[in-house]
């Protein structure tokens, strides 16, 4: 029987406002792809990323353009060549994984791990703001073991100090979202080390990060916007200590697994991260992240409303997805 495909644009309100160095948002805009066959349906969710020129319309159109090949039975391996890395391929790839699991009755986790998946400790993200605002966010979440702090402005040392003082027992990741410069990165890294920061994520703009090869790394530096696919990883050796794997960048779980394996071969640490999306987007990433060094899958915790059923969060622990959600 031919597959039936549906593509839906959805919006989920964020609890308050989510702010990074490039701007603010009040809702998560997602595209959901559903592929049905023989009475079973698989779903995948993606978040179009404006940083890479993606829009809700362009991602929707990219999936629609694949309708004939999806209906004709394209598999995940062929999909890697048929679509470029990005949000659209992520939605289709994850829908295919979910459909395969539903048809076979075998969980996705069984296909990628030898042992049953376990709950993971995820970071919780604090939005960019003035130091006093960020200290208040940190105090409200000081009981969480891992915080991810959005920075990337002219007053970052004050922000870093405010957060570390407000949450002294939490490990902290700094995410500059390409907001630092050649002029301030050495001083900012040194201050981060003094404050006991665990990781600094994407301090410089992608493609303008060669200085990282020539300066000290007193805190490990993680690539985010600079990393997409496994084939490009060699160029980051000597620049970064870790890579942040996001399904919307890699273009799905299939490519993300390849990226993870190649990153390990090259000696990179692994973070598995996310865009601000629902539990449907996080579910495959939770399985990917089972052996990650850092996990940042708090998207649903930032929403005012999630899908039902959704992932189960207990504090900062996120459990593997129930098969009614995905996989």
Describe the fold and architecture.
The structure is a single chain. The protein is α/β, with parallel strands linked by helices and 327 residues long. It has two domains: 4-105, Enolase-like, domain 1, CATH 3.30.390; 112-318, TIM Barrel, CATH 3.20.20. It has eleven helices and 14 strands. The strands form three sheets. An eight-stranded parallel β-sheet has the order 5-6-7-8-9-10-11-12. Strand 1 and strand 2 form a beta hairpin. Helix 1 packs across helix 4 (87-104) and helix 6 packs parallel to helix 7. The longest helix is centred in the N-terminal third of the chain and has 18 residues, at 87-104. It is globular, with a radius of gyration of 19 Å. The chain starts with a strand and ends in a 9-residue tail after the last strand. The mean pLDDT is 96. Residues 131-222 form the Mandelate racemase/muconate lactonizing enzyme C-terminal domain. InterPro entries: DgoD-like (IPR034593), Dipeptide_epimerase (IPR034603), Enolase-like_C_sf (IPR036849), Enolase-like_N (IPR029017), Enolase_C-like (IPR029065), Mandelate_racemase_C (IPR013342), Mandelate_racemase_N_dom (IPR013341). The chain crosses the membrane at residues 266-289.
What is the helical fraction, as a range of percent?
A: 25-40%
Helices, by number, come to 11
CATH topology name of the largest domain? TIM Barrel
Low-confidence stretches: none
Care to count the β-strands? Answer: 14
- H and E order: EEEHHHHHEEHEHEHEEEHHEHEEE
Keywords: Isomerase, Magnesium, Membrane, Metal-binding, Transmembrane, Transmembrane helix
EC number: 5.1.1.-
Family: Belongs to the mandelate racemase/muconate lactonizing enzyme family.
Cofactor: Mg(2+)
């Amino acid at each position: 029987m031919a597959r039936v495909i549906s593509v839906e644009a959805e919006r989920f309100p964020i609890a308050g406002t989510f702010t990074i160095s490039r701007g603010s948002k009040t809702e998560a805009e997602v595209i959901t792809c559903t592929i049905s066959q023989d009475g079973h349906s698989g779903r995948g969710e993606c978040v179009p990323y404006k940083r890479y020129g993606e829009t809700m319309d362009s991602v929707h159109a990219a999936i629609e353009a694949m309708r004939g090949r999806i209906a004709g039975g394209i598999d995940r391996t062929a999909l890697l060549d048929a679509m470029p890395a990005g949000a659209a391929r992520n939605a289709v790839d994850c829908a295919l994984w979910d459909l395969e699991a539903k048809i076979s009755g075998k969980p996705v986790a069984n296909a990628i791990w030898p042992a049953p998946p376990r709950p993971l400790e995820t970071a919780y993200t604090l939005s960019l703001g003035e130091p006093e605002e960020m200290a208040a966010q940190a105090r409200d979440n000081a009981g969480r073991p891992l915080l991810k702090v959005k920075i990337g402005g002219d007053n970052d040392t004050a922000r870093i100090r405010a957060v570390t003082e407000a949450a002294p027992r939490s490990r902290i990741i700094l995410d500059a979202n390409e907001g630092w410069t050649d002029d301030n990165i050495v001083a900012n890294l040194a201050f981060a080390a003094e404050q006991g920061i665990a990781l600094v994520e994407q301090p410089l703009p992608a493609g303008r990060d060669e200085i990282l090869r020539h300066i000290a790394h007193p805190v490990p530096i993680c690539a985010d916007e600079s990393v997409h696919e496994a084939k490009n990883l060699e160029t980051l050796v000597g620049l970064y200590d870790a890579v942040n794997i996001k399904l919307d960048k890699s273009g799905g779980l299939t490519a993300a697994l390849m990226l993870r394996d190649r990153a390990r071969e090259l000696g990179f640490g692994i973070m598995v991260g996310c865009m601000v999306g629902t539990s449907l987007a996080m579910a495959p990433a939770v399985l990917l992240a089972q052996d990650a060094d850092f996990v940042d899958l708090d998207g649903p915790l930032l929403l005012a409303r999630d899908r039902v059923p959704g992932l189960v969060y207990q504090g900062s622990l996120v459990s593997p997805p129930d098969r009614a959600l995905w996989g």
